[in-house]
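Quick one, T. Sequence first:
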Amino acid sequence: MTTAPRHSRRGLLLRAGLQDADAALEHLASLADGETALADPDAVDGLVAQLGRAGDPDQALAALARTASRLETTHGDGERRALLDAVVDDDATARRLLGVLGASDALADHLARHPGQWRELTDPLLGTTRPPAYAVRAGLLAAVGADPDDALPTATRPDPVAVDALRVEYRRVLLRLAARDLAHDVGVDDVAAELSDLAAGTLDAALAVARARVGEQAATARLAVVAMGKCGGHELNYVSDVDVIFVAEPAEGADEQVALKAATRLASALMQVCGDHTAEGTIWPVDAGLRPEGRSGPLVRTLASHEGYYERWAKTWEFQALLKARAVAGDLALGEAFTAMVAPRVWRVAETEHFVEDVQAMRRRVVEHIPAHEADRQLKLGSGGLRDVEFAVQLLQLVHGRVDERLRLPTTLSALAALTAGGYVGREDGEALHHAYAFLRTLEHRIQLHRLQRTHVVPSDEDALRRLGRSFGFTRAPAEELEEAWRHHRREVRRLHEKLFYRPLLTAVAQLPDDVARLSVEAARSRLAALGFVDPAAALRHLEAMTSGVRRSAQIQRALLPVMLAWFSDAPDPDAGLFGFRRISESLGGSHWYLRALRDEGQVAEHLAKVLASSRYATALLEREPEGVRLLGGDLGPRSSEALTTEMLAAARRQGDATAAVRSVRAVRRRELFRIAAGELVGQVDVEQVGAALSRLTDATLEATLDVVRRSVAEQRGLDGAPTRLAVVAMGRYGGFELSYASDADVLFVHDPLPGADPGAAASFAQACALELRRLLAAPASDPALEVDADLRPEGKQGPLVRTLSSYAAYYAKWSHVWEAQALLRADAAVGDPDLRSAFTALVDPLRYPAEGLAAADVVEVRRIKARVDTERLPRGADPQTHLKLGRGGLADIEWTVQLLQMRHAGRHEGLRTPRTLEALRAAVEADLLPPGDADELAAAWCLVSRVRNAVTLVTGKPGDSLPRDLRERAAVALVLGYGPGRSDEMVNDYLRTTRRAHAVVDRVFWG
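Structure tokens:
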């Protein structure tokens, strides 16, 4: 039969992925020698195609040639021909054999020593049937001459023969498993489980050899081998230390000390049998370092001794390790008694103080101790590695598994699936983490399989990466594709580890008492009352409505609510918090992001609980705009006026009419009101920032609304554009950047007709715009109305709503009173035409900041007006000590004092020319007009009174200018202000002391 040209065969080899064509041709020639199937060139081409599937085709071909040669030496030419015929004629056998030879040098060496085992790979059931654990155990015991049916199987073969036979049988089973793994893609979890069964059987066989070594004394002890770590979790690697704990008891009638000595000898001998190196190599080390007291403690303990240790001395990490404990060899009844003894302690460990923080710190220490030269290639311990997944899953198990027994699974992927099914991990996150972990474990297996060495470092050399990449099915550029896939999965693992492992909710759930975490209906009513719920029956109805059924949302709620209840109980109104949470949850129940955000994203759940149970004002906003929950996961700091204006203008211009346009503007305002309120409630913004944020929000609202009404009125009148320039001047607390939640927007409207425009038409246009703006912003809607108050205009309510710039100039030149100059101290031309705003500011500056200061008569007039305000405007029945605005040391006292300083001295001191109270106070100190101590007293009172005023509105949902008389509302205000439970009297005392000191300063500075 003719042979294909050498150059043609060379190209075929290179296309199949072989690197050394010359060596490959020599191997093929040796295989074709004699009367074999490979004497046919077509058969050779078929073999080359099969080699193209192997991880390392060159290695696979060289190992096949070596195995065939060795087989001829040990079994004769007929067996060699049988091997080569099978490779040619049986596609499945070829795929298994070449897959193993191209992936594992170690197993290729094993086949060279025991070439007859190639027939193990001809089994047609190999690809579909996983051997039962009992059959694997029986084969391993038989290899050492022990009867698997004996109560105490004992090796009967000579010791060295038994030890080597155990290794040969172990490798035989491993060979079959590797073939299934590489050729049939059975899944990393199945491979790990089969490896664990193989390890369990090997431990039993090693114990049989140990009994033979120890002799008659072996019968005095019951010895159980409890697997820990990956073997215990049924997820062992190809090569790994097998972590164990040995538990012993005396056999019936035996002395305990004698039995413990015998058990210790048995355990030591077992470890030697597995770990010693012989002509047939080694199996793996047996590591008993996880036992009580570690390597310093006795190798073997009784059940009672273990129980005493775990009761009194064990640390958090030891219970985390016991999560995977499983009796695997020796006296299984004793081993199961051990696991039954430790299990309740494992599932209570999350209640330990600082448990979550300790586990997190332990993971960080592991990363810190990775050798620097390995850090970037560490598959197991490095950032984004296997340990990140395992620690995250175990932490979630230990926290939630104490009340949810479905999570008590030792295997990582099974536990992850249970966490996902139970709603503790989002579906997408669970799926991504599963795929990433499976990829990383498969990569770990492929790396270890090459030389059957315990390693977790991804190689960096090109040949190794190429072999690994091809074993994953990457063929275009195997090394580069493998690195890219590894980087992707590392990023996913790191992202999800940070999200799950450092989830704030974990710490809160871990700190809950067990009966609270279980949310048992029987104890719920009394527990709710103890948590501070006024109406436990209603609260119980809300809980049942949210947690009943088998919906995924109900599962997640069952995980969330125990800790939410604890957070509600720390806030002023737990009942309102729970009711609000139910309403928000019902509104957003169909939104995939809502419960996921509460479970996963930072402080969202804690912030939501605090907001709902503290503030009727914020709750009302959130019920109208439930998607505001999204804001709680980010920065609650106020947005700029420019950003708000841009968003509002864009929203308005998408609408078809003025009413809809302003409704969209108000919707943005409603959301931002919630952002500001939530930011204050959770402590991210202070009272000065709140006032400025509310004022900027009002600027943006008026700017967008003015744009809408200007276009609408022009369209209604058939005009191409506005005949006049318009501006809105902020006044009062709005102008001072000191708005509170309940404040109106005090303004002046000013316009300036364009050149050539009819003055009357321009005035009519401006008047219509101002009226429409006020109407649209005050109209009933689902958001709080914005009352635009123009009563501070010249001539008050009797004067025109809108004036021209020249009209303002004429009025102020002829008729202005000192109180109007005082009011203009807060004027800030904030909205509308920029040039007109600048012109208005230039017009009023000389009036409010007179260069010569304030005349003595005007000082007297200011004081006279203040005295009238104090006596006539204080509401009937109001307490002058606790009225926030007009009381002693209240807002009016402080602001009038500052404004008098401004009118008297701002002409000479530019720093005083500000509408803001606190800025003016600081400027007065810098100008030596006010002692620093006096300024501090005034600033402290102003901030405290403003905070109390905001808190009253937040708590009650209504404006309030007095400290609440209702004790529950007063207690709620105190909690919002940061006073602990039961400290409302302390809040009142602080308020009275602070305002009394401020009032003393007012007496000296304002009244003289």
